[in-house]
Amino acid sequence: MASVTKRDYYEVLGVDRAASDDEIKKAFRKLARQHHPDLQSDPQLKKKAEEKFKEANEAYEILSNEESRKRYDMFGHSAGQQGFGGAEGFDFGRGFGDVFGDIFEDFFGGARGGRGRPEQGNDLQYNLELSFEEAIDGKEAKLKIPRWEVCDSCKGTGAKSSEAVQPCRGCQGTGQIRLQQGFFSINRACGQCQGAGQIITDPCPACRGQKRVYRERTLSVTIPAGIDTGMRFRLAREGEHGANGGPPGDLYVAITVKPHRIFTRKGNDILVELPLDMVTAALGGKVDVPTLKGKTSVKIPEGTQHDQVLRLKGQGAPALKGRTAGDQLVRVNISIPTKLSAKQRELLAAFAKESATASKDQEDSLFGKVKNMFE
Q1: How confident is the model over 52-96, as pLDDT tens digits?
Q2: Which of 73, 108, 143 is at the close of a domain?
Q3: Which of 30, 127, 300, 356 ranks highest by number of CB atoms within 10 Å?
Q4: Segment 162-213, tens digit of pLDDT
């Protein structure tokens, strides 16, 4: 009897030899749906479809496994003699069952799964706006959080009483039913109880059988000193309660700080603009500067320049995680008078004359030094 030459597995699935695992899986799913024998009513067409289906299955079983694919790429169909067998059946232990689960969903409909599994509750985020001072000093805040919580009346059973919970007759309390399609069989979630394995004959009036209720909960939260816009912190297990006894999610508090009228934050440093008259800037002196803790007296050095920054150590924002606090930065803005009295003009003119004389003496001195260099 003449031997039948097998087609190349990549050709069978219609993919390139460099195809990814996902591309191979998608190609097989397409062929499996197209050539499923149970979709054919004509006996001859059914037989041809079964051959195509088995051929695609064999190709997928080899190419979906990293090790067997490497051997096939090296030895071709003779790789069966190198240590791995043919594809005479279905290996549901390597992701193959997931593919057939998708195919069965097309045939039978509905969701896969079994008895109602615990599901973790959703994480929540609360956007909290703080004043500048509240962010620096910290505070105790009351947050009103709307969320799904386990029903207190039925303790999450969804039933009015324990007698109102009965085993599902459709699945005999297992939550699953076995479906047969041709030579395949698969377990699916029971359609009557949705995989819970139980039927509630008398729902809880508080939650109407939903097992959870939507309510607003008030939480007391400590806002740490020094927090800033863009930061957020997590409150573990303060999110929505999970379904079917699952754990609750987490609550994230996202911070936005309102701008201040005179202060600006630069990391842990706090910047304030200080208007300063030109006389004090030139002669030096002491002025009162606003800080977050009230006014404080600051020494202005003689000859202070416009935009010069003075630093008040440790008077900035407290650092998170126990590090030292920032500083307050005082940026000098020298103001020039726009209206002068006659006396002020006279004094400034005298100052300008004196400044010009001093400048001339400096220029003559510098010129003399340069001249001496070349004599």
Answers
A1: 888 888 888 889 888 888 888 877 776 554 443 333 333 333 444
A2: 108
A3: 300
A4: 999 999 988 888 888 877 655 566 777 888 887 888 899 999 999 999 899 9
Nearest to 251 by CA among 175, 164, 147: 147
Q: Are residues 33 and 145 in the same domain?
A: no
**Sequence-distant (≥ 6) Cβ neighbours of residue 157 within 8 angstroms:** 165, 200, 204, 211
Angstrom CA distances, 25 to 99, 128, 245, 292, stand at: 7, 46, 35, 64
Strands 269-277, 294-300: pairing kind:
unpaired
**Structure token pair of residue 20:** 């990814």
**Structural domain range at position 55:** 9-108
Q: What angle do CA 47, 51, 56 make, to 5 degrees?
A: 145
Q: How many residues does the chain have?
A: 375
Say which residue the tokens 């939903």 belong to.
210
CATH code assigned at 311: 2.60.260.20
Mean pLDDT of 287-291: 96
**pTM for the model:** 0.59
Token representation of residue 114: 């079994």
C-beta of residue 74 within 8 angstroms of C-beta of residue 109:
no
Checking 289-293 for CB contacts under 8 A at 24+ apart, the result is 289/328, 289/330, 290/262, 291/315, 291/328, 292/133, 292/136, 292/263, 292/328
Question: HSE (CB half, 13 Å, CA atoms) of 320?
Answer: 11
What SS3 state is found at 246?
A: coil
Same domain, 42 and 165: no
Q: Are residues 242 and 267 in the same domain?
A: no
d(CA 28, CA 21): 11
Count of beta carbons in the 10 Å neighbourhood of residue 276: 19
Helix (H) or strand (E) holding 215: strand 212-223
pLDDT tens for residues 140-168? 999 999 999 999 999 999 999 999 999 99
72 and 88: one domain? Answer: yes
The closest alpha carbon to 93, from 140, 61, 135, 136, belongs to 61
- The Cα 283–Cα 121 span in angstroms is 67
**One domain for residues 238 and 134:** yes
